[in-house]
Write a structure and sequence with these properties.
- The chain has 1 helix and 10 strands; from the N terminus they run E-E-E-H-E-E-E-E-E-E-E.
- With 139 residues, it is mostly beta strands.
- The chain has a single domain, classed as Metal Binding Protein, Guanine Nucleotide Exchange Factor, Chain A, CATH 2.170.150.70.
- It is globular and about 35 Å long.
- It starts with 5 loop residues before the first strand and ends in a 24-residue tail after the last strand.
- The structure holds zinc ion (2 copies).
- One zinc ion binds next to helix 1.
- This is GFA family protein.
- Belongs to the Gfa family.
């Protein structure tokens, strides 16, 4: 690739990952489930081909049945420290979301779009210049 490796991991260091390509997209998700899982107002997701994500260490998983899209999502996190790492939609398992805040260099990829703005908190600023979707990108 010639570029610097894209790496990240959890807070305690037991889970580390390498992304073998830059993200296809960087999406801020305002859905209620991402909000609760992240413990923040929204989550920032690196949309990746599943096969371009290499994970080292044990991930714990929660199959989230009550997503805003209606499709279950497998949410994986470090079982020791709880950092969320990867989400896999059951409807489209070839594409996964890596939680951008877990990158070693989280400034590297800026968000390019906002999803589930129907659930966005009133004080969450969404830049006018970015594409926004009330729900998923195809809705
Ligand atoms: Zn950890
Ligand atoms: Zn979401």
């Amino acid at each position: 690739m010639g570029e610097e490796a894209i790496e990240g991991g959890c807070n305690c260091g037991k889970v580390r990952y390498t992304l073998e390509s830059p993200p296809l997209a960087v999406a801020v998700c305002h859905c209620t489930r991402c909000r609760r899982q992240s413990g923040s107002a929204f989550s920032v997701n690196l949309v990746m081909k599943a096969r371009h994500v290499r994970i080292e260490g044990e991930l714990s998983a929660y199959d989230d049945p009550e997503t805003d899209s209606g499709q279950p999502v497998k949410r994986e996190f470090c079982g020791s420290c709880g950092s969320p790492i990867r989400s896999t939609p059951s409807a489209q398992p070839a594409l996964v979301a890596i939680k951008a805040g877990t990158l070693d260099d989280p400034a590297r990829f800026a968000p390019g779009l906002h999803l589930y703005t129907c659930s966005a908190l009133p004080w969450a600023d969404i830049p006018e210049a970015l594409p926004r979707f009330e729900r998923g990108p195809t809705a």
